[in-house]
Amino acid sequence: MFPVMNSAHKFNGIAFILMLAALLLYSLPKVVGFAKTQSPAEAAELFMSGQLLRQFEDYYDKGFFLRDPSIELWASAQYLLFREGSSGVMLGREGWLFTNEEYRLPNAYQQALDSNVAKIAAVEKTLKAHNKRLIVLPLPMKLDVYAEYASRTPNSRSQQLYGDFIAQLRSSRIEATPLRDAFLAQKDQQPLFLKTDTHWTPFGARLAAQELARQHPELIGSATYSSRQVAEKSLDGDLVNYLQFNRELAPERFTPSPLAVFETLKDNQEVSDAALFGDSEQPIMLVGSSYTKIDDWNFQGFLKESLQTDLQTTAVEARGPYYAMEQFLQGKQLQDPSITTVIWEFPLRTLLSEEPTTTGWQVAANQFF
After folding, report:
1. d(Cα 160, Cα 138) in Å, to the nearest integer?
2. How many Cβ atoms sit within 10 Å of the Cβ of residue 114?
3. Smallest Cα–Cα separation from 88: which of 80, 98, 78?
4. Which InterPro entries match (predicted)?
5. How many Å apart are CA 128 and CA 136, to the nearest integer?
6. Does residue 221 have a pLDDT over 90?
7. Among the residues of 83-192, which ranges form H helices?
8. Which SS3 state, helix, strand or coil, does residue 121 take?
């Protein structure tokens, strides 16, 4: 005997069929829209590699009409119940935000240090083979400098990380320029990091440049550069992107940070024939991450001012310091004999968040050894 379907079961069945039909009608334009983003050849290649379905899922998910309200509802509940932000951000006191990367102290602490220092040593060896001097410029972590604004106390060992890193670099005979003590000493005079961003302020960038020049006076040239503030603007901060709860619950956390805008100019504006035709030598190469790449911080300008010399730059945003160094080691500038010193801007949180890449530049380096 087959079970008899009562009215409640019929209603549930009809409702389920109607829901499936509605989702099908909603999804058809999404399928057509996704198809327009791919050529037949690209679609075939993605299908064979197994990436086509994954890309469609991502395309569909981002455009789903319930996605944003659902995320906001869940994030709001998480904030109200636990006073937590979304994954990627840690809420601090007085509107301060910190990246959760700076809380991730690896279990294999010494192994992480050894691995990174070994990669840096390999870079130093490659540069030395091309008659270039490497100076590592480790940038202290925001959480370390402004720990008093953290709502969750960081691991005590994370405050030792900077000193351990410097000590291990020096034990490997790699030149390093410490910045942590200077940042701790001057953090109350000017904001060195933005409250709602992972990066430093122009004042932090200027302090780093001044410290490098103070510790390496042999790099100071004879040109005269001057920096001046030309404007002020507001910056939302990259960490605000991780605040997905309703803004009305904590409007102070969404307040943009004021940012001073600086420009650096050479005092003598006369253009020589060598500079006009690109023949002037620039012996210093600055390699870095978004701390160097983003113009808002004016780190390149402050470094020119502090070292009183022009410089070349290889910097990549949102890829970390290893990627930028890989680009330099694979490029033509590695062979440039006029470049004698490479300054490597190296955020300390790289040790906690990134496994250093090796394949690209090591392949290039092997041909010299």
Report:
1. 14
2. 13
3. 98
4. AlgJ, ALGX/ALGJ_SGNH-like
5. 14
6. yes
7. 109-129, 142-145, 161-171, 180-186
8. helix
Biggest alpha carbon–alpha carbon distance for the chain? 100
State pLDDT tens for residues 340-356: 999 999 999 999 865 55
**265-to-199, 231, 262, 268, 272 alpha-carbon distances in Å:** 24, 15, 10, 9, 16
- Which among 243, 328, 256 has a CA at the least distance from the CA of 296? 256
DSSP state of 236: -
Q: Domain residue spans in the chain?
A: 12-64, 108-235+260-351
Residue type (1 letter), 255: T
Closest CA to 353 of 182, 129, 161: 161
State the Cα–Cα distance between residues 1 and 141, nearest whole angstrom: 72
Query: Tokens standing for 107?
Result: 């279990």
Q: Where does the pLDDT of residue 284 fall: very low under 50, low under 70, confident under 90, or very high at 90 and above?
A: very high
- Residue 237, CB half-sphere, CA atoms under 13 Å: how many? 26
pLDDT digits (tens, 9 = 90+) for 238-249: 999 888 767 778
| β-pairing verdict for 284-288 and 225-235 | unpaired
- The pTM for the full model equals 0.77
For 33, 56, 59, 64, 194, the CA distances from 27, given in Å and listed in that order, are: 10, 11, 11, 9, 42
- What is the three-class DSSP state of 150? strand
Which pair of tokens denotes residue 64? 């789903």
The closest of 232, 169, 182 to 209, measured between CA atoms, is 182
Cβ contacts of 5 within 8 Å, gap of 6 or more: 13
What is the DSSP code string of 19-38? HHHHHHHHHHHHHHHHHHTS
Nearest alpha carbon to residue 108 among 326, 325, 351: 351
